[in-house]
Amino acid sequence: MNRFFDIPSDLQHSWLGLIGLHLREALLPVLAGLVAALPLAQLCVRFRWLYPPVLGLTTVLYAIPSLAFFVVLIDYTGQTELTVMIPLAVYSLVVLVPAIVDGVRSVPPETLAAATAMGFGPLRRYAQVQLPIAVPAIIAGLRVATVSSISLVSVGMLIGNQGALGNLLHDANIYHRPELAVNSVVTTAALAVLADGALVLLRLLLTPWMPRGTGGRRPKDAQARPDAAVPAPEDADR
Amino acid sequence: MNVLHFVNAFFSDGAHWQGYDGIPTRLAEHIRYSLLALVLAAAIGLPVGLLTGHYGRGGNTLALIATAGRALPSFGLLVLMFILLGFGMVPVMIPLVVLAVPPILVTTYEAVRSVDPSPVDAARGMGMGESRILFHVELPVALPLILGGLRSAAIQIVSTATIAAYVSLGGLGRYIIDGLYQRDYEKVAGGAALVAVLALATLAVFWAVARAAVSPGVRRGG
């Protein structure tokens, strides 16, 4: 285990450098997915007929295996980081759109009516009422998207060593150094858990009105509030 | 010269349709691995999920398992098992099953928990035993959600089995991995198309099963 952090020089990165690379390759797509998902979800909320076809399309896109997605893109973007990041952004988008739509729809109509009565325009109502109330659902979607994205970056190793921490797996294989594979798995899993925890923390900060923790919650409270924090049903790791 | 061109070239080459590296053989291999992993994962996940859901115990443990299952990098686990255990089916099956159990387990638990309690109470009042309540009342109502969990597990298995070609497993992933090493993009694109079609076929199968197995009353209500 004393060579645990001794990264082979062909990767041209230190352990921390690989972590930075991994986070960039995993988190930028999630951000891009979120930026694209917000307007798309708003369209689905506004035009109800749009939602079923969008939902069907997202289910189909989500089923496409990551490796197949990567290699099809090689023809257009080469064996680069971008080839890994585009599919991850699509998967994030696909997880986030239903999460946001459900979150925004869970806003009680009385609340909307109250906001309108207070003179809120549609834009202000969206930004100051609907979006904050949808935060728990959006964060739940972000958690699934982020964790699966961090796990999937490793597959990028197969298309010309674009997998950040996943590249350690190949080196473990060719140099017969199992500790590098252990390092890759443990570090990736730890990053995923930490990112998940950070998002939970973010939710607590953004929604000070929600009951904290699960132990002290009274059943009356739990029933009175529509629980928007139920995570997206699809499990997102492949 | 785009991807469709390469895919077309791959499928129109007669050599790709026969022998140990032919499309029928690889497809059968892929389906066999995936089915085996799904059956094993369901054999573990379904009973535990049904029981914990029925008695309402262990929700926190299951949430932990769900998070852990999602955080584990599937590809890393695959390569690690291969390095530690060597060639063979066992090192590939372990990660496939480990990754497929959490979605099945947790969805089944959630599905049984979310069954409306009033019919369950009514069944108990009519003198039904616990096992009859579970199989005749809770299971039919929870079936759509349970099938959803099985579906996401199956899709995950199909795509992870593709990556498993890197650790010498057969199946459709062979075309992608071998094609990348041989700089044969025709093979890569053809393999990717086959894998995508198989994943979509999996979706279609689960859709058909849900249509056939879910009772019409539940479908109308849900």
From TrEMBL, chain A:
Q: Which UniProt keywords apply?
A: Membrane, Transmembrane, Transmembrane helix, Transport
Q: Please name the CDD domains in this protein's record.
A: TM_PBP2 (cd06261)
* Location in or out of the cell: Cell membrane; Membrane
Q: Which SUPFAM superfamilies match?
A: MetI-like
Q: Which InterPro entries match?
A: ABC_transp_perm/SBD, MetI-like, MetI-like_sf
Tell me where it mainly resides.
Answer: membrane
- Protein family (similarity comment): Belongs to the binding-protein-dependent transport system permease family.
**Where exactly are the transmembrane stretches of this chain?**
26-47, 54-76, 82-101, 133-160, 180-202
Disordered: annotated span: 214-238
Chain ranges of the ABC transmembrane type-1 domain? 19-203
Instruction: Give the bilayer topology.
Output: Multi-pass membrane protein
Composition bias, kind Low complexity: at what positions? 225-238
Which top-level group of life is the source organism from?
Bacteria
Query: Which named protein is this?
Result: ABC transporter permease
Automatic annotation (TrEMBL), chain B:
Subcellular location, principal? membrane
Matches recorded under CDD domains: TM_PBP2
* Protein keywords: Membrane, Transmembrane, Transmembrane helix, Transport
Cellular localization per UniProt: Cell membrane; Membrane
Keyword Heme set for record: no
Q: Where are the transmembrane segments?
A: 31-50, 133-151, 157-177, 189-210
Membrane topology note: Multi-pass membrane protein
Give start and end of each ABC transmembrane type-1 domain. Answer: 27-206
Pfam families from the xrefs?
BPD_transp_1
Family according to the record: Belongs to the binding-protein-dependent transport system permease family.
Q: What name is this protein filed under? A: ABC transporter permease
